[in-house]
Amino acid sequence: MFSLGDISDNTKLVQAKSNVARSNSATPDIKVALVEDSEQLRRQLKHMLGRALGVKCVCDCGSAEEAFRKIPAAAPDVVLMDVNLPGISGIGCTAKLKQQMPALQVIMLTVYEDGDNIFNALKAGACGYLLKRSSSTEILDALMSARQGGVPMTGEIARKVIKTFQSPIAGPEEPVTLSTREQEILELLSQGLLNKEIADRLSISYHTVKVHLKHVYDKLHVRSRAEAMLKFMGDKGGTTAGSEPSASNSKIRSR
Description:
Number of strands: 7
CATH class of the largest domain: Alpha Beta
CATH architecture of the largest domain: 3-Layer(aba) Sandwich
CATH topology of the largest domain: Rossmann fold
Number of domains: 2
Order of helices and strands: HEHEHEHEHEHHEHHHHE
Largest sheet: 5 strands, parallel
Shape: globular
Number of helices: 11
Radius of gyration: 19 Å
Structural class: alpha/beta
């Protein structure tokens, strides 16, 4: 877990990066909500967010129940969510918030790095997963990535996710039929491209990419970019972008 000293040491770097970003863009501050039961850690996170340019902490909560009351009114862009909350867990809190606020981006910030917690958090609608030992710079970069439509997670977490999907899946599932364009967009999504980058790569509009992604979400029964990407990777048998999936194992079909 990072300490207050770690946050202070990185402040100058964070401010320099934020100054560059803001000088080149009229993008408004990222509104952030905190859901963390440790009062000490909440104070540390608020201190970090308060000193970083381009970011604004709009509310902080010590439990899921408090988050349900405060977050809809605060209307944040991104939530930093602890997994191990008293009462309703951070994963349960994420699922309910995503039902109420589908556009809300949730990044799990936790000490847990086991595959089940990671998968369940992403399945609940989280867009990213970071460990509490992450540096302040990594957390702030993740906030920026989440608002831009990215899937922020450390390399070690990404490897655990891939290993989860490389495990055998019990029982057959109904194949999902995706169009060629939908598969192209999913492939680029799995490479980490943002919506605008996908639009540029395929020479289509940003709006068209969003429409295709909505159809993909409906067909795959997912609620987030992260979950769509992970299901696509899983159905490819855990292969890396650009490699060919096994036709016998893939549950995603083209038409």
